[in-house]
């Protein structure tokens, strides 16, 4: 059975990699970009539209604000990217916001940053997969009733690919990511060419609309909607921190490669974002329920030809693949937390293919639960999203400000160890500190705007969930501390180790080959063996005694203790007897209980045999001074 | 934890009864009728309507056939009841169709009878509960969306009441059963009085209808629909055999009390059936989707006053309680089968309150699955119902024919033992044999009619399920036979019992109080103790070796075997090493493995600790010659 399990596993997951092969599993920049940047790149499929959908409430004239807002968001993105490049270079072992906050701000801020990110990574998976499935069900409405099943299926497939190892998933995900980028860039470029009528192309004529605002616009409403539009566009920021957690997934020199990949990601994502926004607003496109802005744009620019279907198909693909950012960072961040004992220790274990299996599967389960709870409706999940990431940005940059102040105290040529990383003298620490400080304050303001504008729509859930998760992480750490103190050999006195009582108790239900084998085993350990039989009827007791006396060679020097019991639950008198032996006859010593166990050929057959042995073992497990010996009997 | 579990159990189920109290838990006739007859009595809520709903397809004129068909069914019921009274008197230990068939027809027919009944009892629960919940959701349509949940909830409540013991459930169920009987009898009696205008009452005037048949009526169609109407009315027969399985639940003299209860049940059920049919047909009531015939009848006779609501309320109650017939007989029949080793042995165990817990819970689970699968739609389940019971009737009566032929061979005063029961000389064996023979043939014909008329609507499921269940029962018996041969001490040679190898292997993951305690335990058993450590990194190995050398008093004479392993799955090298010791060093001997086990305070904390010990134990379980010793370490 175990052999067949391991061969099934081999087919699904692949041959195990030896630990020293880890270096071959590292990512080059091309795969690294595909695997970590799918979330920020995919945001361009809807970020512009998100801004326009809010502004249209102020009337079509207000759509002119789209480009300035997008530029503002781009500025924010550049600030954050700059900050994370600093993080990558200063913390080459990875860990992002959690590590930076831990090293500079203390435990609580680091746990808040970690919890915020963990929740956001889970939402990344739920939201992306649901959005991708919506794209599919829009094309094939017959599938709409099965959307939850399809979304869970997509999560299972993503989980499976990720369990096969980071390099393999990087290869699989590279094609759709780059295909999307190329498709959209071509569309934008061709759109610019045609908008300006370059190279003698037929110039595109912007549409003319006059959509009136839905009601009178007060100053307050105006500011409120501009803020909401900005908050909506901030979805473009999610996932840009992903590379910072995964520095160690890159080929050496790790931090340099990671930093370069981050720059490439920033350039690509911002070109797409500003490009789409520019063309869409200059063509006077209107956000619509029926067709996405990106789809309208592609159709306007190139007609419904090859490019159109290319962009549509890879938009759908990258929406699903965006989930992969969650798959990369949730397990890594969990392993960092597990290393510091804030998460179960098995989160640190790497599986056959050198990925953090525990984290991948935990993520898949929680994300599936959320998808089921929200019925794969990503619109309902969106208000929960992007808050966590903004909190982590703010904390991470505040941490970098503190780190830079430490760097500023160094003299030329001097180095120092912070407890986590080594810092060197830098001439440019002042302006880095300033930029990080600005970044931290701006992201904190955006966070507040996000909370206020989205609170009623569901963001309150995240506002509650983050401190609850922090509490859970602390509780886990406290438990581990308590256990390690109890297990510690520090101050161990030899007398504290208990004596072993010279007695063995064997509960028996019948006399057969299995019991005789167990008796023989027990007799090898001690001469004081006691077989205990609980009888619920006289005929049964007589039968056991008769059979007992048939094997004097084995049972001769064993005492058979028959107890009459007037209820049917035979475990209670057995446990009572064992406790009595333990507490009265051999206090403070270890008493051994030998359980003869019949092991049937297959799992189904287990149902057919009295579960008494299992139940007895479970009850005895609570007793500190009882050692249980299983003597199996196979057929 | 164990203490709190047992106090919760005590609150829910009640104080345990000692085995010798069993006699106090027996039922008097009043409770016995309530507990076993709820199914046949409840049938009257819909049996007449079931016949009329088919006949109306032939036009309202054909409704005149309702009474003759009902009389035919009543004749069949009387035959079956007569036959079962014979069974009860001849098989006072109970067991009904299964026991009779086993004793007279052989194993295969008895298994067919048992399987048919088991399936019917499960359906009794699913159908009754769903019908009861439909009555509730008809009154409160807002609850319709929650019908599956409500039905499962009803099953949970029934399960709970039944787990509290047979006498207590008899008391609880008596009130609604008798309230229903009294309510309907009053309605019928008052209906007769008013129909005939006795005692100067305002005479009821039958309605006049002329519903035309839906199409031309051929001879074939006519016969087909009459047969279908008869088959539909046969639902009145379900559950009438229930008492025969439960003879031992009655106070002594068991068979006499059971037989008297059966007679009372027959009289009550038939009075209700014929009474309702007579009044309903003479008032020219029409079956309708909107209102049940029983409801129309009550309203016509007494108006929508107190009696009307009384009958409506207790109809709903008894529809749900009819499930209790299944709860009584499924566990009893299962325990008979388990005694003969056709079912898992634990089906024989009686719980704290002397009921067959295993059977009750198994029934609840399967019935819930069916309710969920059919979305609590009892109309869809009905075609599956009543087939099984008819097969068991036919087999049971065929068995009684055979038994009577044996009785006929006895001389006056002579007795004989059939292997199951003792038979005496009887003068009346000839006509009993005749009646049973007629009963067997008639029920076989009805069975064929049922299969033909309901096959396409779902009865095929039962036609397939019965032989499959028979196969399962036989497989279970074969397994037990195989096991008992293997465990048998017959021909046991002392040399066959294996030697115990003088070696103990202790897998360790670290050196702490828990491991030291396990080492100390192992050293008491043998001087050849080997601690095995699988190292996945050099630093970890050095750390373990350093700590190992700190405790020479314990580790001094133990060999520490460190194995470097280049994958992460440390179980494989551990198991490989243990297998090597077992097969190469000590072939054909029993090798002992001591596992130091850390036992955390609570279940949640278990998730936080490496599951290595559990997985290792599971893998070693498959090895015949390895004894596992758990040395627990509590905090």
Q: State the assembly state of the protein chains.
A: homodimer
* Main sheet: strand order of chain A: 5-4-3-6-7
Stretches with pLDDT under 50, minimum 5 residues of chain A? none
Question: What is the CATH superfamily classification of the largest domain in chain A?
Answer: Amino acid/polyamine transporter I
Largest interface: A-B, 74 and 75 residues
- How many domains make up the 3D coordinates of chain A? 2
Secondary-structure-derived class of chain A: alpha/beta
Radius of gyration of chain A: 33 Å
| CATH architectural group of the largest domain in chain A | Up-down Bundle
CATH topology of the largest domain in chain A: Amino acid/polyamine transporter I
Features:
8% strand; 2 domains; 635 residues; two-stranded antiparallel ribbon; homodimer; alpha/beta; 26 helices; Rossmann fold; 5-stranded parallel sheet; Amino acid/polyamine transporter I
